[in-house]
Amino acid sequence: MMNQTRHIPGGVALFAAATLAACSTAQAPSPAPKANAATVSQPVAQVASSTSHFENALNLLQSGDSKQADVELHTYLLTAPDSKPAHDLVAQIETPIDKLLPSDSFVVTLEKDDTLSSLAKTYLGDSLKFYELARYNDIVAPGKVRAGQSIKIPKTVSALAVQRDSDIAAKSDAPEPPKAAPSKSEAVPSAHQLAQAEFKKGLLAFQKQDLDGAIAAWDKALALDPTCKDAELNRAQALRLKEKLKILKSKQG
User: Is residue 118 a contact partner of residue 127, using CB atoms and an 8 Å limit?
Assistant: First the structure.
């Protein structure tokens, strides 16, 4: 898997995020008259007691006690009825899993620092969906998964988008495959083949009355393949013709 931002499961971290989400919809209280310490401490104690129910629920889900977690969440909702995280967790516990997630899936392997919460954040967009991901994989205690474990990821729109991006990144980082050995048709030509090519160049030069070019090509052919008799004979003929032309020019001069 590509590196993702890790979201560590557990009561404290998840509880803090959920509490913030739950409080975001609350209206600002109107100014109240000053109260003594006794009247202030009572609502503070009630909030602390309420939030501890949510934290307990998260810890219970991580350890696999969904029934008691459900009780804690419903107790928490009595004092925070608008808490979306709490309602979502209740739905994860009480709703049939085939109503929550699609049946089609792909598999990822848990790496060293991965958790179901971090996978839920990466592929499902919410770390609190760790419990439905656990149910999807028949994992009783989400907090006890280990590195190397195979986890099914439901093919949701967001999960497929992450998988596509991950595959693209993996291909860009992959080393180029080794080049295949050349086929016979692509094999390096032998010395004999190179000599034949030079021999033909010599013939073309000779036909154009370029004796020096022909002789040079046949010299190369013989250097590559001393057994090339055609190059040897034609070279000798070209040398004799060149000598005769030299004599003729000297007489005319």
Answer: yes
Residues with Cβ within 8 Å of residue 10, at least 6 apart in sequence? 58, 59, 62, 143
Verdict on whether the full-model pTM lies above 0.70: no
pLDDT in tens, 61-105: 999 999 999 999 999 999 999 999 999 999 999 999 999 999 999
Which residue type occupies 218? W
Polymer length in residues for the chain: 253
* pLDDT tens for each residue of 193-204: 888 888 888 888
Dist CA 167 CA 121 (whole Å): 18
Q: What is the CATH class of 190-243?
A: mainly alpha
Give the start-to-end residue ranges of the domains of the chain: 11-22+45-172, 190-243
- Classify residue 150 by its DSSP letter: E
